[in-house]
Amino acid sequence: xxxxxxxxxxxxxxxxxxxxxxxxxxxxxxxxxxxxxxxxxxxxxxxxxxxxxxxxxxxxxxxxxxxxxxxxxxxxxxxxxxxxxxxxxxxxxxxxxxxxxxxxxxxxxxxxxxxxxxxxxxxxxxxxxxxxxxxxxxxxxxxxxxxxxxxxx
Length: 153
Prior knowledge:
The chain is of the alpha+beta class and 153 residues long. The chain contains 5 helices and 4 strands, in the order E-H-E-E-H-E-H-H-H. The protein has helices spanning 25-41, 68-86, 109-117, 119-122, 128-138; strands at 8-15, 45-52, 55-62, 100-104. The N and C termini lie far apart (50 Å). The mean pLDDT is 91.
């Protein structure tokens, strides 16, 4: 739309089904490039991507032409299909249902990018579940504990 100007940054977090540690270092960069391509194909700008063996964080410059659920359906659906076609895991790979989406201002982007880039370091101190609950609380998002899966031991 002419004369419409937006600046929206969204940090997404999504996990492997049952928080299984399936994303291996040997192919994680390929996965991140593939997800970057999906985001770009949908007209958004991927700013940072990283995670651990059981979850992924991305922050994007979000454009208003697409609903968030449609974007995440494409990111998760296409990437899980790609992982399965590449046979990177035994059995069937899938992402856990749902995701977190958190908005940030332009002045916070550098901080969020550092946070995403240092995922391995963060998870030396806390589990994915603890991290996710902290994000939900920080953004004052109501949640039911029964929908927050326990970490795989």
